Amino acid sequence: MKIVSVIGARPQFIKYAILSRELRMSHQDVLIHTGQHYDYNMNKVFFDEMGIPAPDYNLGIGSGTHAHQTADMLKGIEDVLVKEKPDLVMVYGDTNSTLAGALAAAKIHIKVAHVEAGLRSFDRAMPEELNRIITDHCSDYLFCPTQTAVNNLRNEGLADKALLTGDVMVDALNHYKGVAEKSGILEKLSLAECSYTVVTLHRASNTDVRENMENIAEALIELGGLGQNLVFPIHPRTEKLLWNSSIYSKLKSSVKIIEPLGYFDFLKLLNHAGKVLTDSGGIQKEAYILKVPCITLRENTEWVETVEEGWNVLAGTDKERIIALARSFRPENKQRDVFGNGACRIIAANLISHQM
After folding, report:
1. Nearest 5 degrees, angle CA 159-CA 163-CA 166?
2. Contact 94, 116 (CB under 8 A)
3. Active-site residue list
């Protein structure tokens, strides 16, 4: 089977890296990189570290409004699909690259497989939520990381296309964790294990809303003043927005702000953290798998299992709630195996059984 895989953002690089190892054993795989993430530390370093083959096509789309970015991707992806004539297009997650890949393929009657299908936050103000819903309804194969995701698709009339595979990030973490442990990032930053909290912040619902951004920043400043060791690998877009704020200098004096990290450095940093404060969906899940308590700077989550299991708590953007949870939150439950194991093998086997 000839597969075209569409990726464009950090979480997709990681998922593709581990799944493509399995796919390439039995299928021809053509890689399109949309260029949605174009900063080196958000992009090329992941290819270098994980040995991802150079993309067959790099569309170089870059930033833009959701409509402009998705439209440019649609045009570029369609051109490749017309040329390559694949049997299947594989898309990952919930980004504009995901949506564009699924739409471009469906419009010209090429089958679509969605890895990480069925997630729902039930908040349509999130661009990612719209991307998930539309992608799932465009797809022919829906590879679900959890039973909750399968249930969501059943409720939308898509049960016949859904398959519970487990999460490919379990495979990725199992595969790469040993390599990541060789990273010297803790020594470089003078950090002892479990003595620090990792912070990540990038969602537009936080960074583009001044009140939310300032509430989170003020909470971080106060936590730093109370003696919490906060390490903040800052997203380039977030830093640009904060740079124009009067609060940035105070933040820099209270929080260890560092450049974005490569995958192995970040994986080791997260794996040995005492806690993580994040608005990232993927990091909520990675924290759970790595048994790191997570405080989510959002009012909702697509990874509901992490909250139900007591290892993730939703703080929103309320300053006092963030501070209280960052100081006191401790999971009380033992974890269950909610994200499975061996997802890549299950997905590859399913595609072989459905070869056209």
Report:
1. 135
2. yes
3. 202
Pairwise CA distance, residues 340 & 352, whole Å? 21
Q: What is the dihedral of CA 291, 294, 300, 305, to 10 degrees?
A: 10
pLDDT digits (tens, 9 = 90+) for 145-203: 999 999 999 999 999 999 999 999 999 999 999 999 999 999 999 999 999 999 999 99
d(C-alpha 59, C-alpha 33), whole Å: 6
- Residue 115 pairs with which residues in a beta bridge? 92, 143
Q: Which two tokens stand for residue 133?
A: 């819903």
Cα(142)–Cα(162) distance, integer angstroms = 5
pLDDT beneath 50: ranges in the chain: none
Sole residue written with tokens 């920043």: 217
- DSSP one-letter code for 69: H
Structure tokens at 56: 């067959």
Read off the tokens for 293.
Answer: 């308590």
Predicted TM-score of the model (pTM): 0.94
Range list of H helices, 24-141: 44-50, 66-84, 96-107, 127-138
The dihedral of CA 52, 57, 63, 65: what is its sign? negative
Say how many CA atoms lie within 13 Å of 224 toward its Cβ: 19
Residues 6+ apart with CB under 8 A from 314: 296, 298, 299, 300, 301, 307
Which amino acid, residue 316? G
